[in-house]
Design a protein that fits this description.
Elements lengths: L5 H13 L22 E13 L7 E18 L23 E8 L3 H4 L10 H10 L18 E7 L6 H14 L5 E6 L9 H23 L4 E9 L1 H15 L3 H6 E7 L5 H11 L7 E4 L4 H9 L14 H10 L2 E4 L13 H13 L12 E6 L4 E3 L5 H8 L1
Parallel strand pairs: 1-5, 4-5, 4-6, 6-7, 7-8, 8-9, 9-10
Antiparallel strand pairs: 1-2, 2-3, 10-11
Helix pairs in contact: 1-9, 5-6, 6-8
Length: 404
Amino acid sequence: MAKSLLPALVLICLAALLAGCAARPGPELFALAPAPAASHRTVAMTVATDRAPDPAHPGNFTSGRAPILSIGRYELSVPPNHKAATVEWSATHVGDASKCFTTVAYTPLPTDYFHNFRPAVAPSVPPAAIAAAAITGEISPAATASNATTTDTREDIVIFVHGYNTNYSESVLRMAQLIADNTLEGEAVLFAWPSDGELSGYVADKDATTFARDHLAKTLIDIAANLHYRQITLAAHSMGCGLTMEALRQLRITGHDKTLTRLGPVVLAAPDIDLDVFSAQAGALGRMDPPITILASPDDRALAFSDRLGGDRVRLGGLDVRDPRIQQLAQNYGIRIIDISGSAATDSLNHDRYIGAATALKAAMETHKPQNPLRKAGAFILDAVAAVLETPGRIGRAAADTMQ
C-alpha cells in the first residue's frame, strides 16, 4: 500500500474503533441547572482558555482561536451514582443532577486573575521576604499587599492540559471527573487549548498547540510569580503534553528560570510526542527537580496510530520501560518513565490509562521515605493493585519494598 494512503487508513481505523460512542456533550452542558440536593457533591475548577467565546451560550467556548486568554470559574454537581474514572453524561438527561454532571455556577474572571490571586487569609510569608521577592522579580508586586499570618494558608494548585480531539465541554467534564475521583488540595485549573474536537482534526490540533504555547507559558509565569500559590503541579495528556513541553522549553530559552524553579511535579500522560522531538525539548529544558514523569503504555493503540501518521516514528508515550535503552534514556535526560499498562483503560484504544492509574500513582507519590523512586529519575512499572512502583526485571513486591 502506498505510504501516502496511510494517514487516511489510520483515520478510518480510528473511526471504526470509536464507532458506537455515546453522543458527545456540547454547549448544553453550560445551561445552568438548579442547585442540586444538599446530599450531592460539587466540584469547582478554574479554566484558562484561548478558545473563542461562544456568544450564544455563556460559559461555552468554541474551537476558534482567541488572541487573549479567557478565565472563568465553574462549579459542577457530581451525580450520586458516580463511578470512579467515569464521566456520567447523557444527551437525554441534560441538566438532571441525579444522573449526570451538571453545571450549577459559572463566573467570568479577570485576565489577571492568577497574577493577583489571594487566599481568604493571607499566607505565612514574612512581609520582608515578600518585599524582597518582589524586588528580585520572583513574586509580583501586587502580592505584597497581603500581610503575613502565623498559619500557612497558601493554596496548592494543580493545572491540567487536555489532549487531542477534545471539545470544550468534554475538557470541562473530564476535569470535573478527575477532581471528583482524586482529593485535590487547593485550586484545580484546566488549561483548554482550541482543539478542533474532531477525529479528522489531528493536523489542526497540532497547529493549535503551537498557537497556545505562549498562552500556557504566560499562565505559568503568572501563577509562579504569585507566592500565594504553594506547590504547583502541572499535568497533561496526549497531544497536550507536546504543548506543555514546548511551553516549558520556551520558558527556559527566554530566561524564566525562576518560573521553572517554582514548578513542582510535571506529569505527562500518554505523551503524543515524537521521541526525537522530546529529546530536543528535554535537552533545551534541562533537568527538572523533581524529574519530569512520563506515564507510558506500550499497548497504547492511539499512539500506535500516531506513529503511522508521523512516518513510523516512535511516540514517547508508547515506550517500553523493560527495554534497557529506554532505561538509559531516562537516566540520560533525568526523567521518570512509568509503565502504567497494568491500570484499567476506559476506552478501546488504551490511551486513557492515566485516569485509572491516578489513585494508585497518588498513593505511591505520598510515600515519603527517602528512597521513594518517585524522588529520582529512572524507569519503573506501576503495580496498580499494591500502589507501588517496581523496577523492570526485578520480581514484584519485594523489589518495590526494597526501593521504598
